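General statements about sequence and structure are easier to judge against a single worked case. No coordinates are needed to read the tokens, only the vocabulary itself. The sequence in question and its structure tokens are set out directly beneath this paragraph.
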Amino acid sequence: MNDDALRDLFNRLTKQILGLIAKTDDPVAHRATAVALLHHKVPGVSWTGFYFLRGEDLVVEAYQGPVACLVLERHMGVCWAGVDRNETLVVEDVEAFPGHIACDSRSRSEVVVPVRDGSGRVIGVLDVDSYHPGHFNEIHREGYESIIRLLEGNWTGESMTNRRRGRRSRT
């Protein structure tokens, strides 16, 4: 898929997710819906899901794909690096990433986007894997980050209040 087509796909997915999540204020339903849509519409992905901090642990939440690691070893691998560095990571070759955790030994590339609460604190990550080395690029990063910002905006009190009143927050 060329860059323009990929940008168009993420724009369409963002609009679709916005329309679908408008039906409920439940963040878990938002995450499950976003993951299902992203997993089945973005070509070449093998696993799409969320990990959230629960106390000191990074625990799997909504996901699509093969069975996941339920709790990730602390401060190891790409997901924890995304949390610890508070930044999106695009990894072309997961086997070359120090401390990579192979929940699925077939995974070859990965993108991880931090999820933040209203104060900007990292509370989890969106994790997307592919069986193809070098699968993810800057357009994937931008697209996934945009969708996470949309979801985060809908999880704040202001956004929820505006939606209950029939006004959609601009995110």
About this structure: The mean pLDDT is 91. Residues 3-164 form a domain with the Beta-Lactamase fold (CATH 3.30.450.40).
